[in-house]
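Practice problem: predict the structure.
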Amino acid sequence: MKIKKAMSCVAGDTDSSRNFIQQCNELLAQRAQIMSIAAMFRIQLKRWKAVIEIYGPDLAGQLSRELSNRLSAYVNEHCLLARIAEDQFAIFKTDCANNENAGLFARTLAKTVIAPINIDYLQFRIAMDVEISTYPDNTEMISEPIANAPAALLHNRTVWSGDCYYFSKETAEAAAKQRSLRKSLQTAIQKQELVLLYQPVVDLQSGDLTGIEALVRWNHPELGMLLPEDFIPLAQENGFVMELGRWVLRQACDQLQVWHSAGYPLLSVSVNVSAVEFDQAQWINTISQVLAETGMPPEFLELDIAESTLMRHAETSLQAVRSLKNLGVKIVMDNFGRGYSSPRYIKHFSVDILKIDRTLTHDMIADPDGLTIVSSMIGLAKGLGLAVQAVGVETKEQFDCLLHTGCHRAQGYLFSKPVFAQDVMQLLVQRKTGTLA
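Answer:
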């Protein structure tokens, strides 16, 4: 069996995909008596959407055809090629001597894809990753590597262009879990499975509890309490993060009103903002509506936006931040120190609070350079007239060091772990006795 060109099996083309899998099974049957292994190589092109957005679909089509032609050079009686999505190719090869040989072939594919492509006066280098699934070692069905498309990458979060990852039964199980979570996440709000925990923010000078950070958890009926990293990426993929974000915001604002009415009118609440929410224009309208519906004074709402999100498209971010500031809310630059924010942009963003990344908080005791970095950040913030908040404070030594360097606020297990709303009142009482620090 020989295929000269890539078979098109783009997302949604079920018949083509089934045809490709069928041909793979036929080819696999032909080598039943051959002492070799078969391998599925899934090639994932990186930043392909950016290529389309910047250069247009016509040029992207030319690039895709060139890649198809290059990969077709490997097609023979032992090898099939298909394009399974706009940014993905699949190659099924039945004459690999062993796993090491399959890995060498994957690296050959990588070199083929990332070699420069010249179109008119432009030159492109397409970054990619290769997922490898061998048969019969790691899978029993040819369709598994296609159905579990990104499975091998789920457990390799730090990826580099040209890397190769093996698909296995373990990653297949993880992918099945991800699909199940993605499906049940859609009804988590209706089933009242989502809950908010709250972690206090302490004024280091006075010891007062000055704010509360709202942290969402998913109390899954089978898997128990899930952390945000277990389900927020899934919510971002399917767009559910907008509904989830609105729910968190509404719950946090309602709860803050309860605490204000209980005699703590100066308490603030902070809510984390995902990159997807920040990119959506309707998100600003959502905040405005929630503030109006709950009657919450906007100056007590702090929006935590990651430094990387703000700096990704700085000029566009400036416009969004100005719109938020017009609502009267406060802007917190989260994970400060992880990126390379320019002081000029920090000033133009009208940020109210800089949140020092927890890795810097942990490093400043053991590493003298870490302390120097934190001190310089605090000095920068004070020079710009901003408040500074440290995250992940766990020891009295860290507390004393931050107090000495002039840090304004802090949160961490030294003061309290995240707790339910009913437990916050006890923390609010404790602040009057100074027992939080």
